[in-house]
Request: fold
Amino acid sequence: MAGQTQLTLIDSPPRRQFLKWVGNKQRFAAEIVAAMPARFDRYVEPFVGSGAVLARVGPEDGLAGDALAPLIEIWRLLQTDPETLLSHYTRLYERYGENREETYLRVRESYNSSPNGPDLLFLCRTCYGGVVRFTRAGKISTPIGAHRAISPQSLDERMREWRPRVMQTRFVTASFEETMAEAREGDVVYCDPPYAYSQQILYGSQSFDLKELWQAIGRCASVGAKVLLSLDGRKKSGSVELRFQIPDGLFRRQLFLDCGSSMLRRFQKSGETMQDEIVHDRLLLTW
Reply:
């Protein structure tokens, strides 16, 4: 059918991350995309985050949303005005080279006073572990990371690689319900929500209710859209399976993906051994 996206996993994925974001699916995007239908009309992602799966699909027609407005601002600027992102990052990087701690704190204060995409991009590249953590008031509270942030040249290279992959996607600041309400027959919807067992501390004032997500997924399936959901699967190296009250009949099958050690647990344990902290994602499918 004309206008359909046809998956071509022969194409190389982005070599490096554009955004550092907790729960980033960069390493597992190929496995997730391989579970999708070979053809579909439109790709819909209501929790876009780092966009790792979106970039792996590179849809001819995409819709991606998130409730965090500065995050969506980053994606829109990447499409329409990448030079603004790069020049802002470059100015901050130069100051960062002179005084890392002072620059980081000033940028964090700037973001917390007036949340915006360019500051968020710099913070997610310089904060501790790349884990941007929000308070209940919506303020970023993460301290500076010990690592050296990527150079403006590296950011420019990443932006040039990622930009063509997202140019046919419409980015919206919206709740997942609003984004998923646009799904129609023939669409593929990929959901990667905040994980109930492991990411509560990261999102502060951004409330999330799995019961509402079940309802939204059911509505998508009822109109003929195919839905994939990434969910906490197993922790403690597979010895503990996480359980949810998933409505009967909502999903037809599931897969488990070995995600290695948890990014969040690395953040929390800070240097301690990660033995027995291997996490498995559960990928649930409605067809």
